[in-house]
Design a protein that fits this description.
Blueprint (H helix, E strand, L loop, with lengths): L1 H6 L15 H13 L3 H28 L7 H14 L2 H10 L5 H27 L5 E2 L2 E2 L11 H8 L1
Antiparallel strand pairs: 1-2
Helix pairs in contact: 4-6, 5-6
Amino acid sequence: MTSEATAHGHETEHHAPPAQVDADIVARELIATTTNASRRFKTIAWVLGILGIVGIVALVIKFLDQGNDSTRWGYVAALVSFLLSITGGAPMVAMAPVMAKANWVRPVTRIASIFSFAGVVTIGLLIPLVAMLPPLVTEGARRRTIWMEAPDYSPHIWSTLG
């Protein structure tokens, strides 16, 4: 077989890595792949980054200004629950094709990894929201909740541990 491949000139189709590659060349080529992005892409990335920072600053200011008033956090809670419903299952989607040894592991895992990162960031937003929940028992009266017969502060503790 090998003599037949060399007889037909197929040895040029095999791509072997070079024997020695200088580290500077490798670094230059890797940096070139990231710096050659289009101007439009860089502009969009900067705008989204700045908007993300503005959003984080706005949440911190809202927490410092209206931290004790849980009625003011309805929209933030709705947004966090929406984001968790979308990104919460992403780690399982990332692991499923790997466990199944599927042929389409890379594209699905890459997209699911991005969503997994968004889910982790969203859980970071969930922790202060759980801390802002009003107590389950106020002045001896228990407020209505889905935790019917659970001990006091049950959703707070389990949500924080989860």
